Amino acid sequence: MDVSVKVCGLRRPEDAREAMSLGADFGGVIAHPASPRYVAPGTEEALLAEIPKGKRVWVAVEPDLEAIEAAFARGFDWVQIHFDPSGDFDPVSVSTRFGASRLWLVPRLANLLDFNEDWVGLAKVILIDGFSKDRMGGTGHRVEGESFAKLQNRHPEQRFSIAGGITPENVGEVLRSSEAAQIDVSSGVESSPGNKDASRLRALFQAVRQAEE
Ligand SMILES: O=C(O)c1ccccc1N[C@@H]1O[C@H](COP(=O)(O)O)[C@@H](O)[C@H]1O
């Protein structure tokens, strides 16, 4: 099976160029100020020049509607929203306003059993990321592959992506256990937070292609 790969947390144009040349399906740009991978809205021009149209994902934590609108206006194709399901953020109103086809949703879940069936269909992709009680994303924490596979099998009509601590070394096992068709990778291909490592990127894509055979 072909696996879609998003390389997230791109900050440097040369990292985006390398990821795209290796076959990344999506490039993610983080708009969360607390992240070491933060790229301020409006300063993404050089980065976007290296990510072809159709592959540009803007990643934010509970953004307001105006910020989402502005990200689309700057040339992003997709908006990936991390949110806390126990808080005030309403994924239904965002999906209604912008349409599910342009959204990726990332509910912050300590336990996949807390997945709310009502989220199915609200977004093109629902991303399952590793949980941390202190952080909203980019945690480096793993998701249990078998639990992800069960969730995907319960909702075959919804595309899911798995994230959290995926590295060149563990991606084969992640793909086997989760049966995921889409993965999201960030800290596992970095030399330091926010800086991608070209050799780790190459190793990641090589391992993915091997797993696809
Ligand atoms: O990377 C961040 O700092 C970040 C901050 C806020 C929201 C999302 C963030 N990153 C997302 O988390 C996944 C997994 O990262 P990792 O591989 O565990 O480091 C990453 O792909 C982004 O989508």
TrEMBL record:
One of its GO terms (biological process) is L-tryptophan biosynthetic process. Its EC number is 5.3.1.24. The keyword Ligase does not apply. The keyword Amino-acid biosynthesis applies. InterPro entries: Aldolase_TIM (IPR013785), PRAI_dom (IPR001240), RibuloseP-bd_barrel (IPR011060), TrpF_fam (IPR044643). It comes from the Bacteria. Keywords: Amino-acid biosynthesis, Aromatic amino acid biosynthesis, Isomerase, Tryptophan biosynthesis. Gene3D superfamilies: Aldolase class I (3.20.20.70). It catalyses: N-(5-phospho-beta-D-ribosyl)anthranilate = 1-(2-carboxyphenylamino)-1-deoxy-D-ribulose 5-phosphate. Residues 5-207 form the N-(5'phosphoribosyl) anthranilate isomerase (PRAI) domain. Pathway: Amino-acid biosynthesis; L-tryptophan biosynthesis; L-tryptophan from chorismate: step 3/5. One of its GO terms (molecular function) is phosphoribosylanthranilate isomerase activity. Belongs to the TrpF family. HAMAP family: PRAI. This is N-(5'-phosphoribosyl)anthranilate isomerase. It comes from Puniceicoccus vermicola.
